[in-house]
Write a structure and sequence with these properties.
By secondary structure, this protein is an alpha+beta fold. It has one domain: Acyl-CoA thioesterase, double hotdog domain (Porin). The protein is about 20% helix and about 35% strand. The protein has six helices and twelve strands. The protein has helices at about 10-20, 45-55, 140-145, 155-160, 200-210, 230, and strands at about 25, 30, 65-70, 80-90, 95-105, 105-115, 165-170, 185-190, 230-245, 255-265, 265-275, 280-290. It is globular, with a radius of gyration of 19 Å.
Amino acid sequence: MTDNEDPTPQELVSRLLDLLNVKDHGGDRFEGRRKIGGVGRVFGGQVIGQALASAERTVADDRPVHSLHAYFLRGGNEDHEIDFKVERDLDGGSFSNRRVVASQLGKPILNMVASFHKREEGFEHAAEMPKVAGPEGLPSERDLRLQYAERMSENQRRVLLQPRPIEIRLLEPRHWMGAGPQPPVAHIWIRSVAPLPDDPRTHRAVLAYASDFMLLATSTMPHATLNSGSDMMVASLDHAVWFHDDFRADEWLLYACDSPWAGRARGFNRGRIYTRDGRLVASVAQEGLIRPLAPKTAG
């Protein structure tokens, strides 16, 4: 690959797997790699995925994660690796619990608690999958962004046109496509751009990573404008994922998002993740900062 060529899908996925494959330093301390070519703030999904991967290294394989709850404390910096310290709070008969602190340069950037549960049989019910169009025939989000690139600022183009290891296909138009205010409901199809290894922990880590894409934007849909990058400060504050059932993150998953509330410069968002055959395999919730910015005045 030359400097002017985009990485191949397999290269993008290999980089993602390297990113999520934390280095074990012993004593329940781990190190998360820097993203190749990363500039500026670390993507929140990366920190969550690496924190989950660190916690899972300390739990028996027969106890898959069933939930994680994370708080973003500071923005991470792409110039540095991320250190993770895991505390083993519980190893009970059926459940294990881990606390993880992610730090850079000695300062915490994220706190996370994760719970792990041995597989058990029990009562079952699930919300039905929304009736929406399938991913076939839909353009990828990146292809759409290329079509609308001339409407973006130079900084937006540099960030938003970067190739990603997760393919996204939208079912509703977004503000950068010229869409006006819309109801805070969004549906997207997601999957890795190339096949993943069979290890279920890899698929959970990739889904944790991908669950931070697009979710917070749902709460901005009634308020966003074409210039939302400059008239709104947006940042994730917390993030929770519940893993209900098995899935593959390299097969199409429907991410159905809605935002029931926004106010006090914050927006609350929910997401349900379904397999192509309609199984509800994960749920997500997030609150984020959506702070209006006063227009800049000359002089």
